[in-house]
Design goal:
The protein folds into 2 domains: about 50 residues, Helicase, Ruva Protein, domain 3 (Orthogonal Bundle); about 140 residues, Dna Topoisomerase Vi A Subunit, Chain: A, domain 2 (3-Layer(aba) Sandwich), CATH 3.40.1360. Helices cover about 40% and strands about 10% of the residues. Strands 4-3-5-6 form a 4-stranded parallel β-sheet. It has a two-stranded antiparallel sheet with strand order 1-2. The protein binds zinc ion.
């Protein structure tokens, strides 16, 4: 164990920063030092922002998104098409689709995907409320925007199954050649999926 070079408060700051995704112990030290140097411009406002966020964050009971109000901003937005619900694994996927302005619809966050390996079963996911929402008369289409992994696709099949008794149309994202992608650089899985899902020109 390396000798501490700073007091327990600073060591604690470094330890907490090191738990963030993408930050190892070395980057956490660098980040902590940066915060300390920019105490007034950064450390103070950041600690205030963290405090406010931790006090006010709620998980939307309708869709599973996180926000500081219930229902969340997406569910409250009257400009969205109420006939479409986009099903995602995690809030990060919702944010990614919103950044891409891919669709002006509502969302449903599952909070994970089914995984035999990790012991994630249907009852661990936000599935029952999805069935209830999908049965609402205004809902016409459920878009499964799940990852193209084995677990993501297993979950997509499961969701399709539990919605099969309803009159909604269930669709999923196309998998294929990315925009700007060169065939030579794609992995075999992506290429074969793109070939299988080819469309008329
Ligand atoms: Zn919501």
């Amino acid at each position: 164990m390396a000798q501490s070079v700073a007091g327990p408060e600073i060591e604690r700051l470094i330890q907490l920063l090191a738990r963030l995704p993408g930050l190892g112990p070395r980057s956490a030290r660098r980040a902590a030092l940066h915060l300390i140097k920019k105490r007034e411009q950064l450390l103070g406002p950041l600690s205030e922002a963290l405090k406010l966020a931790s006090e006010r964050i709620v998980v939307c009971r309708t869709c599973g998104n996180v926000d500081t109000a219930e229902p969340c901003m997406v569910c409250r937005d009257a400009g969205r098409d109420p006939s479409i619900i986009v099903v995602v694994e995690d809030v990060s996927d919702l944010w990614a689709l919103e950044r891409a302005a891919a669709v002006r619809a509502r969302y449903h966050v599952l909070g994970g995907v089914l995984s035999a390996l990790d012991g994630v079963r249907p009852e661990h996911l936000n599935l029952e409320p999805l069935v209830v929402r999908a049965a609402e008369p205004e809902v016409k289409e459920i878009i499964l925007a799940l990852n193209a992994t084995v677990d993501g696709q297993t979950t997509a099949h499961y969701v399709t199954e539990i919605l099969s008794g309803l009159s909604v149309k269930v669709t999923k994202l196309a998998h294929g050649v990315p925009v700007g992608g060169e065939l030579d650089y794609l992995d075999e899985g992506t290429l074969s999926a793109a070939m299988k899902q080819r469309t008329a020109f």
